[in-house]
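Example record

Each entry pairs one chain with its bound ligand, 2-phosphoglycolic acid.
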Amino acid sequence: MRKRLVIANWKMNGSLALVDEMVAGFSAASHVDVIVAPPSVYVFHLTEVAAGSFGVGLQDVSQFESGAHTGDLSAAMMAELGATAVLVGHSERRSEHGETDATVAAKGLRVLAAGMMPVICVGESLAERESGQAEAKVRAQIEAQADCLRFGGEIAIAYEPVWAIGTGKSASALEAVAMHREIRRVLQEVTAEYAQGIRILYGGSVNGENAAELFSHDEIEGVLVGGASLDTEQFAAIIRAADV
Ligand code: PGA
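Structure tokens for the complex follow.
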């Protein structure tokens, strides 16, 4: 089995002190790739103090290359700071900033062109799950990323059911596994050439307690962790659980 990928998404949380605490408390695991995505203002400090012990990521990127886009940050700037991965299409970006699949695709291509890995986030709402539309929704979100998926760079897909994010109500391992299998099928249809190289992560209320159950399934090739990644001990427990 390939190395698992554990990504911390701090969202709009944390501080310089938390960056230092995280780095001091970090212990690597041999079969796990770890990436920490703090708020972008902390990335410079994090790359300095992490000194390569884990990867550094960002939570969003501009869809534009450069220019008059006040407040935005370009993929090239991120790569220059040593970032290796960028989240695109997180459900909070989609819902709070109106990001469409087309915006997400543009962002993903910028990340790839800058030599970094886009972590493309997909997932259904509670209403979509309850009306039996979950698979169709996720399929459509992935098909909309065909240009990225066929680019040939390193990519991860994060399946994050919207109803499980920040709610303390994780999808069950079996629900996650079923969707990961469906995602693998869609990837295979979109790009038989690159599908097998794409890691599929689960996200949504992952913590130190439920990580082991999730990782008992080979389909769960990593996790995207929000709230629990702000707690150094919880995050360490998740990394340990992934190290199998
Ligand atoms: P959560 O967030 O772990 O706090 O549910 C996950 C995410 O939104 O990436």
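The domain at 4-242 is CATH 3.20.20.70 (TIM Barrel).
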